[in-house]
TrEMBL record:
Localization per Swiss-Prot or TrEMBL: Cytoplasm
Listed CDD domains: PanK (cd02025)
Regions that span the bilayer: none
Gene name of the record: coaA
Single annotated GO MF: pantothenate kinase activity
High-level lineage: Bacteria, Pseudomonadati, Pseudomonadota, Gammaproteobacteria, Alteromonadales
Name recorded for this polypeptide: Pantothenate kinase
Length: 316
């Protein structure tokens, strides 16, 4: 059997952190003090070195790719002798539960909107496309949240297709980590951004393992550049447990929280419950459905301890 290492050697240029950091070239850290504070505010553990060493080179690369897509649009307009509807550049971010997809997505959004060529960058998470809680209960899927069958993939593909088509306004459903359910009161409106970042553990999945009559285009058919955030499972489980402990003080403590009963747990009890959720839901989902999609990504970001990136793999 071909090993993962030889597949990666064939498909990707590999960069150690120091080498990747040099590819920032002359991109200045143009963030204003407020933007920097906002980034730190959303995650006080995020180090500034991570932004300069990892994310600035990445924003430079993405700016070049978006520019080449915009050029291609001009070529098409010339060939067709008409002005075509601009289509947003779509970036997807995949990876395990708790790997830091939404943090990565928010850093990229902040950095990419600084470029004058693409100031409007929207961010959508696929959490909103989980079936509503009542449907999951009815289908017996409460212990399968995050598995492919827990998402309304038809709705997700229709959404991304409408955004890609350049529709004036497309609505995305929103998810609440407090009620553990889709929000019924509010939507997110996407109005012809220059770039859309779509973040979720399922964005590289194909549905090819489902019955033939339920197959549809893949999310990746609409994506211009895909990123997979990777880390060893031992680290992921640790990060999941840490976040579960944080939630106990935050989201779980709100009276309307689905997990309100967790808010009074001791550290040991909370750790044991989080470890169990990992071992029975998120770990198996990672191994069965998420990790196998990794080598479809255009870029793999490999994290080590403390969320520090130690290797970057870029498709040849
Ligand atoms: N670059 C980083 N530096 C430090 N901590 C981080 C970083 N990225 C993520 N974290 C922490 O790791 C945990 C998971 O992050 P995040 O919520 O971004 O993950 P996610 O992959 O979007 O998770 P989910 O799929 O469950 O929504 C959080 O506690 C977050 O604070
Ligand atoms: C919403 C998802 C599926 C993905 O972000 C995840 O955070 C989740 O709720 N997983 C189910 C098991 C758990 O509570 O972690």
């Amino acid at each position: 059997m071909t090993s993962i290492n030889s597949i990666q050697d064939a498909l990707y240029f590999a960069f150690q952190r120091e080498h990747w950091a040099e590819l920032r070239k002359s991109v200045p850290l143009t963030l204003s003090q407020t933007e920097l504070e906002n980034l730190r505010g959303m995650n006080e553990k995020l180090s500034l070195d991570e932004v300069t060493d990892i994310y600035l080179p990445l924003s430079r690369l993405l700016n070049l790719f978006v520019g080449s897509k915009q050029q291609r649009g001009l070529v098409l307009d010339k060939f067709l002798e008409q002005q075509t509807t601009p289509s947003p550049y779509i970036i997807s971010i995949a990876g395990s539960v708790a790997v830091g997809k939404s943090t990565t997505a928010r850093i990229l959004q902040t950095l990419l909107q600084r470029w004058p060529e693409h100031p409007k960058v929207d961010l959508v998470t696929t959490d909103g496309f989980l079936y509503p809680l009542a449907d999951l209960k009815r289908k017996g899927l409460l212990q399968r949240k995050g598995f492919p069958e827990s998402y309304d993939m038809k709705m997700l593909v229709e959404f991304i297709s409408a955004v890609k088509a350049g529709n004036k306004e497309v609505l995305a459903p929103l998810y609440s980590h407090v009620t553990y359910d889709r929000r019924h009161d509010e939507h997110q409106a996407i109005r012809q951004p220059d770039i859309l970042i779509l973040e979720g553990l399922n964005v590289l999945q194909t549905g090819l393992d489902t019955p033939i009559d339920t197959r549809r285009p893949f999310v990746s058919d609409f994506v211009d550049f895909s990123i997979y955030v990777d880390a060893d499972e031992s680290l992921l489980k640790q990060w999941y447990k840490q976040r579960f402990l944080q939630f106990r003080e935050g989201a779980f403590s709100e009276p309307e929280s689905f997990f309100h009963h967790y808010s009074s747990l001791t550290d040991d009890e909370a750790n044991a419950i989080a470890a169990n959720i990992w071992d029975t839901i998120n770990g198996p989902n990672l191994n069965l459905n998420i990790q196998p999609t990794r080598e479809r990504a255009h870029l793999i970001l490999q994290k080590g301890p403390n969320h520090l990136m130690d290797k970057v793999l870029l498709r040849k």
